[in-house]
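Re: that chain you flagged

S.,

Sorry for the slow reply, it's been a week of failed gels. I finally had a moment to sit down with the sequence you sent. For the record, here it is as I used it:
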Amino acid sequence: GGVYPLGGCNSESWGARECEARKRGRPGGRRVSHLRRAATGGDSESVNAPSPISVRQRYADAITRSAESDLGAPLVEATNVVAAADRGGSTAAVAYPLGACTVIWCAAELRPSLSELDGRPALGLDEFVQAGLDLGGKLVGFGHHRVLSDELAAPSIDPARLVVLDRHDPGDIARIAAFVADCADDDLDEAELDREQLDPVIVAVLAVDGAIAAYACARPWSFDGDFDDIAVIVHPERRGDGLATIAVRALIARQQRAGRLMFYNCDVENRGSNAVAESLGFELVCTVAAVSFT
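Prediction finished late last night. Pasting the structure tokens below so you have them in one place:
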């Protein structure tokens, strides 16, 4: 999800980009009928600009497929506690309210502690958090999930200041390393900017001296590989100039030309990141909550 570091948190302290875990390559499964509202194609003139219903439904379908795959059965119209093998070792349980059904994802070792929540009427986020606290957990935080239905034009900026970086190019790697050295560890963690595992798509806004001023990146969203999961980080000395929005807009315009869909996830308290998402037209599709058990 998107990150515009303003002192937010990451991963088990609230993951900025798929807050509970980095899930990869989830297999398909049956969909819950009450989540399968018919998607309409609308009157869009471009395949890169799906209707709001279709993109929002695509999100719900992706979450449902993944949960049912982990559960090994259809979701029920209630609270579903779902253990996932790829969450092994995680101390967090994360709730996704999906209307008549709520999914609580956790590691297999946590499921016995949460079993009394399974089958309850679909818990809202506040109810989930309170139940988690009653079971000895600690609130981690809340995250907004957003998708984009509109097609965006490239930003109005000198094209020479926008560059696409190659994560395998030695020169680009050195430029990224210099940028990373100037950023705080907390900001890098929230953006999940790891020089050893850079995202496949990177767009940078350059300063006058050619150094990276803002860095936007994307990787396939773990629940649906047709979505790009976006993150952004701005150099500490370049904040306040709107560069995060410029970088993300440039990345989106590039990726939409290739037919990609857009996903943006950030902490609800990260005002900068939420402002970037809202200014670009991202629509809130779900707010999730995490409770940690240690």
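What I noticed first: The chain has seven helices and ten strands.

Talk soon,
D.
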